[in-house]
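Lay summary. Proteins are chains of building blocks that fold into shapes, and those shapes determine what they do. In this project we predict the shape from the chain. Here is one chain we studied, written as its sequence of building blocks.
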Amino acid sequence: MPFEALQNELDERAALGLLRQRRMLQSPQAPHIIVDGKSYLSFCSNDYLGLANHPQLIAALQQGAQQHGVGAGAAHLVSGHGAAHHRLEHELASFVGKPAALLFSTGYMANLGVVQALAGKGDTVFADKFNHASLNDAMRLSRAKVKRYRHNDMAQLAQLLEQVKVGRKLVITDAVFSMDGDLAPLPELLALCEQHDAWLLIDDAHGFGVLGAQGRGSLAHFGIASQRVICMATLGKAAGVFGAFVAAEQVVIDTLVNHARSYVYTTATPPALASALLESLQQIAHGDELRGHLQRLIVQLRSGLRGLPWSVMPSATAIQPLLVGGNQAALKLSEKLRERGIWVAAIRPPTVPQGTARLRITLSAAHHAADVARLIESLHELAR
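And here is the predicted shape, written in a compact code that computers can read:
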């Protein structure tokens, strides 16, 4: 039976410390949660500003459902594009400083749609080796030639761009790398794209809402603007709700409306979510105090984790990876924390390179200094 082969593969993954399993959250997303019936202090969420259970977003969602109903009922291009969607796209474009924006159901679908619509046979995609899986899948599905450069290695990228003389060129990168927490050198990337007449697609999933003036994202953080930049950001992390958007020049957005298969052939997200996200944008724009608190927590954590046998990787963002090394060692450390009522996910290959299994500590503005102190104390106890 083919089931035997499947089970054997799962058993092999378990033996290597690579088996993935789900745990059931039984409370709203927050620093203190209930998982599988037990209470935990969580450092696993991408809810960077603590908006996922914010009362004003909940009220906006309820009002949106009353006004627009529950489901969109159809794809955007059929009859599913509502007034709330339309207003949200306009507000998102303005917020990140681009002429137009387009909503997608998820960041994964957005990346698939953009790359497939803008690059194909005869074109070339240039990608950072640490990019998110959605960007990797997107470039493979596009049928374009793929050239990957070492993580944040601008010299190698320059050489690769120089070698390609024909077709469209599309450079794709995370802005904040989701497993390392470090930033892409966006000004240098843009300079290379201008020099070699390439587009630059920036996945700002972990920068939007957190970085830059008023949380406007990585472009604002670096103070860069260019017509050749295409920005994708998700709306289920710092924004606290669900979905994603792409912001770019109007001609790019029009091209996506006509050619991005993951947009054309899927049902629109519930319009009530757009209502909640309009409120979320207001919270983000006025969230300097939240972002300031988050930065203080980052400094506290990095200072407190000095002297451990596991190294904190270089990161100035809410993603603070603690490098452990071996898969089983990372799983054991995560389990020991869980026994102490602290939930931190162990990240293993193939999500990260072999030999770099880690605890991915994520901080939220909803955490208190006492929460971070408890994590620090527990890790030092385990080290002893």
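What the prediction tells us: The chain has two domains: 22-49+288-383, 55-285.
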